[in-house]
Design brief:
Layout lengths: L6 H13 L1 H9 L6 H6 L9 H10 L13 H21 L4 H6 L29 E5 L2 E5 L9
Helix pairs in contact: 1-5, 2-5, 4-5
């Protein structure tokens, strides 16, 4: 069985595309009135971000999950693009698994759980500020966020 590439190799392949992520986000999502959580889950725009990672990315970027995409500032778009890249690389690294172990567990051995800051931590203190994390539903999907760190703005 062929070996999977190391994270550094993956970074080198993806890095040039990540640099354009800010432009893609603003161009594809910036005019939408959809909430940011829903936008991140839209696989036709950005593939690979699921429910868990969308919560983590929005938390790290300090973006309110129900914020309509067309209300984000340029600074928030830049933060979002950076956090998408950093978070995906981080979780790829933390979830390293050999092809043998992956097959043995049929892909069910999810190793990122100890590294999640908000997903699965509803009603617990925020790791940044101590405020109680809130769980809500957005677009039919569960969402956990910090009402202090991820404030809505006009």
């Amino acid at each position: 069985m062929p070996e999977l590439p190391e994270v550094e190799t993956i970074k080198n392949i993806i890095e040039p595309q990540i640099q354009g992520l800010f432009i893609i986000n603003v161009t594809c999502l910036g005019k939408r009135k959809k909430r940011m959580k829903e936008c991140l889950l839209d696989q036709s725009v950005i593939a690979g971000i699921g429910n868990i990672y969308s919560d983590e990315i929005l938390f790290r970027a300090k973006i309110y999950p129900s914020m309509p995409a067309n209300r984000l500032t340029d600074k928030e778009w830049e933060s979002l693009a950076a956090e998408i890249a950093k978070s995906l690389f981080y979780f790829i690294e933390k979830n390293k698994i050999s092809p043998e172990d992956f097959l043995k567990t049929k892909g069910q051995d999810y190793r990122n759980t100890p590294f999640l800051q908000v997903y699965g931590h509803a009603h617990e203190p925020c790791p940044n500020c101590g405020e109680t994390l809130i769980r809500t539903a957005i677009g039919g999907r569960g969402c956990v966020y910090c009402p202090n760190c991820q404030r809505e703005h006009e």
